[in-house]
């Protein structure tokens, strides 16, 4: 048993958020018991739910415990009923506020596809079956944050401009995080890191490449390669299984991580993490609040359950508990249990609660 309690804040959020988080929570409670973990878990309203209660998507009563927490588990936020809220008070603003308040600069997006679900992909099953890659995207720098930025008249022509800027420290910390991630994924060795940039054209990428290469000297067991972003986009579609971990900047990562998620064709299956310097993290499914199916009890909770596994692995250092959850999910999929989003036509489906229960049964078995 760990000595001092680690603090987990759970933010169910909106739409299907509370339904899927309830199942994530049941699975977390099960591994707490089976692995003797010492966690303090509390829930707070966030997003639209917090706006309804407190008039703000990220009230201080939610932000303060998030600052104190070791890790945060989020369902999803947002929905059409909040479209009329003032822009600064929309649920999505709460999420941006949380990410920036906590300095969550490293966004991990695994794209994995269980062989049994390879028919869900738009690519040929043999190209994607067993796909297991992670894209690590720098989340708080680059062109989305650089200045100057704006639209102004130059020589009589309206001109829009942004600035892609990274300093060595920003590149260094995401590179370290990438190499550490490689080590955590493959402690036995054999990890491969591909750094994606545009160093043939951009000076900022030249510095990126130099810095990542320098950091690699500290990680002799990780094989580093570099790829230009245009080629990386092509290779992701041509032969995605050639990758293990990809590290890249904010803009390139935004595009590549969505493309990689679509390779799997199953939005209800994919977890994500956003981490700070010290490994504190926000863990959430990549999907949104799915207002079209909210309240129906049919949402797939596996992305949330797999987010719990990521939390155990990357923040809490409880790899065995993470392995137990991931292998339980694998057995549930192998046994043919399907929620509607991952079923092929004619296949019997289960709802949110039954899917969560199937994972609990697999954990117990
Ligand atoms: P969405 O991801 O919520 O839904 C897209 C489609 O996928 C819908 O048909 C939905 O039913 C389905 N889907 C999503 N998750 C599913 C699950 N677990 N099981 C089964 N089916 C699932 O995207 P959207 O409809 O574009 O956005 C809805 C709301 O969510 C918006 O308000 C948006 O701003 C918000 N959003 C929030 C987050 C977040 O909380 N991080 C991320 C994306 C979108």
Give the SSE map:
Elements (H helix, E strand, L loop, with lengths): L5 E8 L3 H19 L3 E5 L4 H7 L5 H9 L2 E6 L14 H11 L4 E7 L12 H4 L3 E7 L11 E5 L2 E5 L6 H18 L6 E6 L5 H14 L6 E6 H10 L6 E4 L1 H15 L6 E5 L5 E5 L16 H13 L4 H16 L17 H13 L1
Parallel strand pairs: 1-2, 1-3, 3-12, 5-10, 8-9, 8-10
Antiparallel strand pairs: 4-5, 4-11, 6-7, 11-12
Bound molecules: nicotinamide-adenine-dinucleotide.
Structural description of this entry:
There is one protein chain. The chain has helices at residues 17-35, 48-54, 60-68, 91-101, 125-128, 168-185, 203-216, 229-238, 250-264, 302-314, 319-334, 352-364, and strands at 6-13, 39-43, 71-76, 106-112, 132-138, 150-154, 157-161, 192-197, 223-228, 245-248, 271-275, 281-285. Strands 2-1-3-12-11-4-5-10-8-9 form a 10-stranded mixed beta sheet, with helices on both faces. The protein has a two-stranded antiparallel ribbon with strand order 6-7. It is globular. The two termini are 22 Å apart. The protein has 2 domains: 1-104 and 272-365, Isopropylmalate Dehydrogenase, CATH 3.40.718; 132-263, Isopropylmalate Dehydrogenase (3-Layer(aba) Sandwich), CATH 3.40.718. The relative contact order is 0.16. The protein is an alpha/beta fold and 365 residues long. Helix 8 (229-238) runs parallel beside helix 9 (250-264) and helix 10 (302-314) packs antiparallel against helix 11. It has 12 helices and 12 strands. The longest helix is centred in the first third of the chain and has 19 residues, at 17-35. The mean pLDDT is 95. Residues 16, 20, 76-79, 92, 95, 267-268, 284, 287-293, 299-300, 303, 341 line the site of nicotinamide-adenine-dinucleotide (NAD). Nicotinamide-adenine-dinucleotide (NAD) binds next to helix 4.
